[in-house]
Design brief:
Elements (H helix, E strand, L loop, with lengths): L14 H11 L5 H8 L14 H7 L4 H11 L2 H8 L3 H10 L22 H11 L63 H14 L7 H12 L10 H18 L25 H6 L6 H15 L1
The structure holds zinc ion (2 copies).
Length: 307
């Protein structure tokens, strides 16, 4: 469905933030109804997706000649395309045609923030520059914890009442105080660990399209360690030993890292090495589309072993 005066994206704005601005501008009370004129898929408008039907519905509000640029600049589809090694324009054509839900396996593991994220300094600047606050696209990438422009930690919920923006239709990012409890947002800060800096650096490289995805090389490394090249139905005892040994080495290494800001805590404080996402033989022999953090950790391990 096409509507009049659908707003053009502002600098680095998330595509769904345009829908939010459109809906809110038509009157606060009616905003869900208004959003439904653009898309009937407004019930799940969280920040944790690369693409959904609602993305297509928002994108087709613009002239076709802008589709590719807007999808590239104002959604995280490029992140998905770099981790699935699917050419961006092919992927976009597929998504416009059949906008099924794109999924990366174990993505929940890296969703340490549950709501849409914002930078308090960007909110002030955007209000000054454009007269409105809006949701930035890059800030929504699960691996991003800081704003590039200001270096500030991104916020995703109220420290007092835990209010968060699970749906973008809840409105623009707040200027200074929580829309629910009214308490002001304090600037959070923390001393970044080596792991924090490492993840942030990779998050930026991925967003800038400057990321080399070398899963086959990582897989080849493990195959060489195992001494065999393919997945079998049944392993010999010796082969099983190789697999267990490599798993133990990787698991021990993984558990030395401080990933508390990047992976959701496990129940009973279980170590991350016990999560199936970090099963070395699955990583080596299967080609699932996995969440970025899983790949980054395997890649880091591989790079450290090569040195
Ligand atoms: Zn900022
Ligand atoms: Zn609050």
């Amino acid at each position: 469905m096409s509507v009049y005066h659908f707003p053009a994206p502002l600098e680095r704005e998330h595509l769904l933030s345009c829908l939010m601005r459109y809906a809110i501008s038509q009157g606060r009370k009616e905003y869900v109804k208004v959003a439904k004129q653009v898309s009937t898929n407004v019930s799940k408008v969280d920040c944790n997706s690369y693409w959904r039907t609602i993305y297509r519905d928002a994108l087709i509000q613009y002239l076709p000649k802008y589709h590719s640029q807007i999808a590239f600049d104002n959604t995280l589809l490029k992140v998905y395309s770099s981790f699935t090694q699917c050419d961006f324009s092919t992927l976009l054509t597929q998504q416009l045609d059949q906008p099924h839900k794109l999924q990366l396996k174990y993505a929940n593991l890296e969703q340490v923030h549950h709501g849409w994220k914002w930078c308090p300094e960007c909110v002030i600047e955007d209000e000054e520059t454009y007269g409105v606050a809006y949701w930035h696209c890059d800030h929504q990438f699960a691996l991003k914890k800081r704003c590039n422009q200001h270096g500030t930690l991104l916020i995703s919920e109220c420290q007092h009442c835990n209010y968060s923006f699970n749906s973008i239709l809840q409105g623009a990012p707040p200027l200074s105080s929580c829309p629910k409890c009214g308490e002001s947002f304090e600037h959070q800060n923390r001393e970044d660990s080596g792991e924090d800096l490492w993840v942030e650096d990779y998050a930026n490289r991925i967003l800038q399209d400057d990321f080399e995805f070398n899963k086959p090389e990582v897989q080849a490394y493990f195959k060489a360690q195992y001494g065999f090249n393919e997945l079998k139905r049944q392993w010999t005892l010796a082969e099983r030993k190789h697999i267990t040994y490599q798993q133990d080495l990787f698991g021990k290494w993984l558990d030395t890292l401080d990933l508390s800001n990047h992976l959701v805590p496990l129940s009973n404080n279980k170590p991350y090495s016990q999560v199936s996402a970090f099963n070395v033989s699955s990583y080596t022999f299967k080609n699932h589309n996995l969440a970025p953090m899983i790949h980054l950790l395997f890649k880091r391990y591989w790079l450290e072993r090569l040195c």
